[in-house]
Structure formats: structure tokens, C-alpha cells
Amino acid sequence: MTRGQRLSAALALAAAILLAGRAAAIVYSDQEWFANLGALSVWNAQVSNLLWLYGAAVVIGIAFTWINVSAVRRSVVALIVPKRHANVEFGEEVPSARLRALTAAVSIGITAASLLALPSWTTLALWRSNVTFAETDPYFTLDLSHFVTWLPLEIGAYQWCLALFAMTAILVVALYALTPSLSWDSRGLHVTPYARRHITVLGAILLLFAAWGFRLDAFRELIQGSGVDGLLTRTDHVWLIPSDLALSLVTLGAAVVLLVAGWMGQTITAFASVTVIIIGTVAAQLVGPWISARIAASPANAVAERPYLETRAEFNARAFPRDPIPPSVKYLADSALLANAGQVQIRGALADVAFPNARGAAVVRDVPRLIVAPRLGSGFARLMHAWSEQNPRMMSGTIPSTAAFIRERDVRSRVAALAPVFTLSGSIGAIPTSRGVLWVVDLYTTSETYPLSAPHQLYNSRLTYRHHAATAYVSGGTAATIIVPDSALDPVARAWFSAHPGRYITPGVPADMITPPPVAPAIPTGSTAEDQLFRQNVSRIYERMRATLDSGDLRAFGSAFDSLGVVIRGRR
């Protein structure tokens, strides 16, 4: 190994150590944050589902890509790279070890790109929570949890598999085109038997994906039908759903025919099977809706449509119940009035450590230990926290080990981390307390795949299900965060809270979080200038005591307290 190669290897090793260290630091800091809030089960769920999701995707993706690229490599006797030395041209065979390394690199690259199409870990976590509605749809007779929890996961898996397959198939065909295995001249396309069989297998897999897609389309008819606002109609039930299922079965058969015919070299039979599928798809997508529209326009269909109208009304009432006024809405007007009066800073008072749109982490001296956050600590703990934030100033010896290390100071981000499967309300309420502003956020169970209900547009989402699930409270002064579930929970919220209990879930708001701001002690009234001056001094010192107590500066609080004693003794 040359000196330059050794230097490159050392730099690569150092970069790997730094990246691995940063990742470990983030994991450590996250774990400490969740544990401090009493929500360790949520962190465990996040880690385990991420490992399952990405672990399975990486293993399957690398294996699938490796097998296909290796198959192309085996079809070539040797890879010759042209070389030139002076006026002499010659070819040099690429070593097999280098080809294997290149195959591994390509497999990893394609797999990494496909990970962008994976569903979120919360989709897997929600399905693993064992949600049960104990209600079935009237057409497939499946529990509604199939649509709310399983179907989003299956759609996400389908999209990821299709993305991985598409990238791999394009690469395989391109590699064959660079070799004599696949060539085109004046006489037509020439394909070697080896390449033909490989491409045939890929074609059969593509038809399997098509069959899978038709099956998913049958379920999607209950979510977005051909009626007004995407509602299911009689024609969807009688025509479109059966046609989707029939196309799925026919496509499965065509995949088998294509595989056998292509493997045996029967090109005409293979081409015919693919043609049948294309014609069937076009007929289902174009002719089917035309027939459905004609049926829907007939007078007899209006009578036959009534049971479907009743079913839609029933499911819509279940999907969108009339919820009571959320706490965040109730407290919005009050907080606005207080802000206008200058009594509360809605954007977060100077003493607040958590408030809407707060950015970055913070290290706060917290002598009375009122702030709910991990301590900065010393040694290994401090190193991990500083590394996770990439802030070497946190290693300074001037910062005590008892200082609070506050992450996720933004109210929405903080609540979303503790309740990742719920949708947060658009509004945030505020309640003034003795420990800063108490921020209020409502949580909703939402779904885009609940069947047979009229969709509601919310921001960029098309929701078919929305239930109020809980209310979150975040103390601006202490960063304490709790979630108060509703007394009557929908099946999704009930399953999630049961699967992930913790100290952050309470049946009600603790009294110490909603204590109103203290009132200044009553001062005997007087008419003399001396009395007025005394009242002003006491009020001023009292406000200074409150400010120092909120900031945790006990030394300044003691000084203010002594000053108050001097003023009172002087009055006597």
C-alpha cells in the first residue's frame, strides 16, 4: 500500500468514526430525552420499528439487486477494458474481485435510493399496536382496522417494492445492452438465451406487481369511488370491484404463462399473454367507467342506490363525530386578550424554555431542578450531548453538571415526538400560570384510508376519518409535557395508549401545572406620600423576586428577599 493509499484509508476511517460517533450520540441523547419524560416505550417503539423496516428493506434490496447484477456479470466471460501505452493498444481484463466490489457498490446504491419510497415507521408501529374496531365493512367483511392500519402499510410496501424493481430492471437491461447478450442491428433484436430467460423472469415479476396493484385498487374503491366526492356507488360495487379482482387473477395467470413461454423460447405466446393484460387493463380503466356512468344514469339505478346512500351516511357519522370544543380553541381567545393587555407574552416570556417555533436546544442553569429535562452531566454524558448538537461550547467547565439540557423546545415538535401517530391541531392555546405559559395542543386520530366516508380536506391531506383523541399540555417555564386522553377513545387511540403507557400520560392536568400567577400581597392603603412610596418599593421588590425565582437564580432571589426585609423593617 502506497503512502497516498494509507492516508486515504486513514481519512476514511476517521470520517467513519466521526459519523458513527455522531449517530451514537444522537441515539444516546434521544434515549435520555424520552426517558426523562417518562416516554421510554415510545422511543423503544421508534427504534424497533425503524430497525425492522429499514433492516428488512436493506436485506431484501441488496439481495435482490445483487442476484440480478451478478446474473448479468456471469453472462460475460470476461470484462476487457481497452488500454493504451505509447502507440500500443491492448485490452486488460478486470479482476473478478474488483467486479464483485463493483456489484456490491451498485447493490448498496440502488437499495439506498429505494429507501426513499419506504413508508414511515409510524405506519408499521400502528399496525403492530393490534388495533381492532370490532366492525366490518359490508362488502369485503373485513375488520375496519384492515383499511386503517394494514392497508397503508401494504400500499407503502408495494410502492417500495415497485421502486426497487424498476431501478434494478432498468439497470439489468442497460447492462445487457452494453454486452453482446442484447444487441440490435439491421436484421432486428438479438437476445441470447441466457439474457432472454433473465429478462423473462423480470417480466413475470412485473406482472405479479400488476396483479398486486389490481388487488389494492379493489380496496381503494371503498375509499375513493366513482361517486360525488369520491364516494362508493352501486356501480363501483357491482362492476369495478369485481373487475379489479378478476384482473388480479388473470394477471397472475399471465405471469405464469409469460415465465414458462419466455423460458422455453416461445416468444409469440409470451407476447400474447402480455397483450391480453394490456387490453384488459385498458378496458377496465376506460370502458368500465363508461359503462358505470350509463348504469348510474338509468332510473332503476336511483332506487338501487338507496342502500349505498344509507351505508355511506352511517360510516360518515362514525368517521367524523361531533366533538366538543377542543381546549386549544377554548383558550385561544383568552390568551389573545392577555397578550394584548401585555400580561402574557404568547411568543414565550423570557423565563420560558418551551414555546411555539422555538429553535434549537438550550442549556439552562436550573438550580431548583424545576425544568423537566436531562441534566447536562459530566464526562461521557456531557460528551454525548455536545456531540449530538455539534456544540463544543457545551463542554465548557463554566457550565455546571446540574444544568438542564433541553431538546425539542418547539411545542409542536415536542408533542409530536411523544404522540407520533396522531395529527396535531392547527391552533395552539395558552393559559397563564405561575411557571410561565401553559401551551395547549389537541391531538386527533386521522386516516386517509377509512372506507365509505366522505373525505375532508385538511391542509394537504384528504382525510376520511377524524376523531379527537387527547389534549397535550406543555409548560413554557418547566418544559413539562403531559397528554390527557379523552374519556371515550376511538379504537386507534385506545390501542396506542395501551401499548405505550408512561408518566407523560395522565387522566387530568396536574394542579401544579395550572396554578395561576401569584398575586402581590395586599398592602395597607394610605394617603400619605410615605405610604405610596412604601407600596411602590414592595411591589418592585416582589416583581424582582418572581423574576429571579423563575430564572432559577437563588442568589439574586436571596438578595431581593433581604431588600424586602430592609424595606419592611424601615416601615416599622
Task: Briefly summarize what is shown.
This protein has 572 residues and is of the alpha+beta class. It has helices spanning 3-36, 40-74, 96-114, 121-128, 145-177, 193-220, 234-264, 267-297, 299-304, 306-319, 327-340, 380-389, 411-418, 491-499, 529-551, 554-571, and strands at residues 80-85, 88-93, 182-185, 188-191, 362-364, 404-406, 423-424, 429-433, 436-447, 456-458, 461-463, 465-475, 481-485.
Structure description:
The protein has 572 residues and is of the alpha+beta class. The chain folds into five domains: 23-179, no CATH class; 193-319, no CATH class; 327-360 and 407-513, no CATH class; 367-405, no CATH class; 529-571, no CATH class. The chain contains 16 helices and 13 strands. Strand 10 and strand 11 (461-463) form a beta hairpin. The longest helix is centred in the first third of the chain and has 35 residues, at 40-74. The protein is flat. 31% of the residues are buried. The model is unreliable at 335-350 (pLDDT under 50).
Q: Which terms summarize this structure?
A:
alpha+beta; 572 residues; five-stranded antiparallel beta sheet; single chain; flat
Biggest β-sheet strands, sense, barrel:
5 strands, antiparallel
Q: Give the termini separation.
A: 89 Å
Count of helical regions: 16
Beta-strand residue fraction: 5-15%
- Strand pairing plus helix content: what structural class? alpha+beta
SSE diagram, text form:
Blueprint: H1 3-36, H2 40-74, E1 80-85, E2 88-93, H3 96-114, H4 121-128, H5 145-177, E3 182-185, E4 188-191, H6 193-220, H7 234-264, H8 267-297, H9 299-304, H10 306-319, H11 327-340, E5 362-364, H12 380-389, E6 404-406, H13 411-418, E7 423-424, E8 429-433, E9 436-447, E10 456-458, E11 461-463, E12 465-475, E13 481-485, H14 491-499, H15 529-551, H16 554-571
Antiparallel strand pairs: 1-2, 3-4, 5-6, 7-9, 8-9, 9-12, 10-11, 12-13
Helix pairs in contact: 1-2, 1-12, 2-3, 2-4, 2-5, 3-5, 4-5, 5-6, 6-7, 7-8, 15-16
